[in-house]
Amino acid sequence: MYITQGLHRHMQQRPHATAIRCQGRGMTFSQLGGRVARLAGALKALGLQSGDCVAMLSRNSPQYIEYSLGVPWADGILNPVNTRWSVAEVVYSLDDSGTSILIVDDSFKDMGLAIMRQARTLRHVIHVGEQETPEGMLDYEALLAGAEPVADVRRHGDALLGIFYTGGTTGFPKGVMISHNNLAFAAMASASKGFFGRDARFLHATPMFHLADFSAMYCLIMSGGVHVILPAFSGEAAIRTVAEEQLTDLMLAPTMIQMMLQARETHPELAELQLTSIRNVIYGASPISPALLDRACIVFPKARFFQGYGMTELTTGGTMLDAEYHCAEHQASGKMYSAGRAISCVELRIVDENDQEVPRGSVGEIVVRGPNVMVGYLNQPELTAEALKGGWMHTGDGGYMDEEGFVYIVDRLKDMIVSGGENVYSAEVESAVASHPAVAQCAAIGIPSEKWGESVHVVIVLKPGAALVEEEIIAHCRERIAGYKCQRSLEVRDSLPLSSVGKILKGELRKPYWEKHARNIA
Predict the structure, then answer these.
(1) Among 149, 364, 480, 504, who pairs with 37 as Cys (CB 3.0-4.6 Å)?
(2) How far apart are CA 311 and CA 313, in angstroms?
(3) How far, in Å, are 98, 171, 411, 422, 503 from residue 416 at the CA level?
(4) Residue 206's CB: how many other CB atoms inside 10 A?
(5) Which pTM value belongs to this model?
(6) What is the Cα–Cα distance from 184 to 72, expressed in whole angstroms?
(7) Which residues pair with 422 in a beta bridge?
């Protein structure tokens, strides 16, 4: 399989059908194919060689789909950049992957200038947008206009499709290597559930650099549905777009669903809009509360709700909780609070520290095997061997399985916080906080948040004689890590609880915040 396969089919069979809609403007499959072929030609003219990485730092846009197809068309590897990262994090990922070409849009062109000065491997930076192209950058539309279209090399199979960076336990992001086959499987698993068919109109509301969105994108490219693009998410904009574009499929975090419902309740004119076109709502990152589900079912009266559990290393997919388990009966039975069962072609087990499967109902680590499992971590063979021990992806999530195969997640064995659908590794936060000259020790933990599921909380021990200025520490962190990773709250203590070998006992720090909850994560 290869990611451009669906585009070729629809260019041949339905050239004048709509492929993309964004802010009232449309693009057909024929137009999309022509622009993708010219982008590939432009990249080759800039010296792109087989296996070179091309990065994109941009809000959601039609050009993001062109990039996602044009780079593999030219035999390159994708490196979608997290738009919420700091300059230092972006530069690290570019240098780590050897990225030679970066595309930035209007929102990030100033950041692009700083990246140009610091990244060692960059040869070209391309600007896409309505604003003037900065000096030293190339203009995207001018490149396409002057490029000769080239034939698709049909990069495929086990060849790398992209490097998708995720948080790291050592304080640095780690590059997850995903193949064409990995993404093709993930897309087919979604298609088997009835998502993103030919008549689908799907909203790209989550950031397009996320692998979850890539999976939906490719499924839609295979089926020939319409990509409706929201450049930046807001509850109000999403509600209006659903109504105006008669969307059928949504993929959101519960916090985004909540923001849409709040917008509808706050703005009377939005309450008048009909949202009956929505057929499927897929949510992930955390469970949905019964109260929020009840409100969402009123607003989207014809929708089926599905919960997905996964991670970047699984090309996002591991389990799915189907729509029928969101009813009152399964709320009462507890099934709705599970993460569902393993998706098609995936094996899932709960194992102990010796990788032996534990009895049903016993807590252990969730491990997964299947065609969706990553190739490995870029430039980190030891970490790859540890994660893929015995051929199973060790998720670092603690959970148990019932007699019917439903998986219940109860804790994270790895030191990670999920806030608003984004993974935050404690080590990254602690590395940033600890570099402040007033800090002697620190620990980052996740605490319950009604809005975000979990929020980042930091406990600090100050150096003798040092004073705490909270705003100063937050500003210090924002220079080093993305804003969403920075602490939402902090406290100062005289000391941190330590084990006999000097390890910080984070369970003791979390305990007072989570003691009224059934599990230790949101």
Answers:
(1) 149
(2) 5
(3) 27, 12, 10, 10, 16
(4) 21
(5) 0.83
(6) 14
(7) 419
Let me know if 464 is exposed, middle or buried by CB neighbors in 10 A (0-12, 13-18, 19+): exposed
Distance, in Å, from the CA atom of 380 to the CA atom of 393, rounded to the nearest integer, reads 15
Task: Kindly write down the DSSP assignment for every residue of 400-415, as one continuous string.
Answer: EE-TT--EEEEEESSS
Distance CA 68, CA 505 (A): 43
Q: Please give the Cα distance from 36 to 270 (Å, whole number).
A: 37
Q: Is 385 exposed, middle or buried (0-12, 13-18, 19+ CB in 10 A)?
A: exposed
End-to-end CA distance of the chain: 36
Cα–Cα distance, 263 to 481 (Å, whole number): 30
Give the span between the Cα atoms of 23 and 82, in whole angstroms: 23
Which of 94, 105, 91 is closest to 140 using CA atoms?
Answer: 105
- Please list the alpha-helical segments (H only) found in 300-458: 328-333, 381-387, 426-434
Which tokens hold the place of 396?
């670092």
Sign of the torsion formed by the C-alpha atoms of 321, 323, 328 and 333: negative
User: In 3-state terms, what secondary structure has residue 252?
Assistant: strand
pLDDT tens track of the chain, all 522 residues?
A: 889 999 999 999 999 999 999 999 999 999 999 999 999 999 999 999 999 999 999 999 999 999 999 999 999 999 999 998 999 999 999 999 999 999 999 999 999 999 999 999 999 999 999 999 999 999 999 999 999 999 999 999 999 999 999 876 666 789 999 999 999 998 888 888 888 888 999 999 999 999 999 999 999 999 999 999 999 999 999 999 999 999 999 999 887 898 899 899 889 999 999 999 999 999 986 678 788 888 899 999 999 999 999 999 999 889 999 999 988 777 777 888 899 999 988 999 999 999 999 999 998 999 999 999 999 999 999 999 999 999 999 998 888 999 999 999 877 666 778 887 677 878 788 878 888 888 888 888 888 887 788 889 999 988 888 887 778 888 888 888 888 888 888 888 988 887 644 567 887 888 888 877 755 565
Q: What tokens appear for 513 in the block?
A: 């915040």
User: Would you state the structure tokens that stand for residue 510, as one six-digit string?
Assistant: 């979390």
CA–CA separation, 503 and 497 (whole Å):
8
Sign, CA dihedral 286-290-292-296, equals positive
Residue in the structure block whose two tokens are 């003219």: 45
227: nearest Cα among 73, 66, 18 = 18
DSSP 520: S
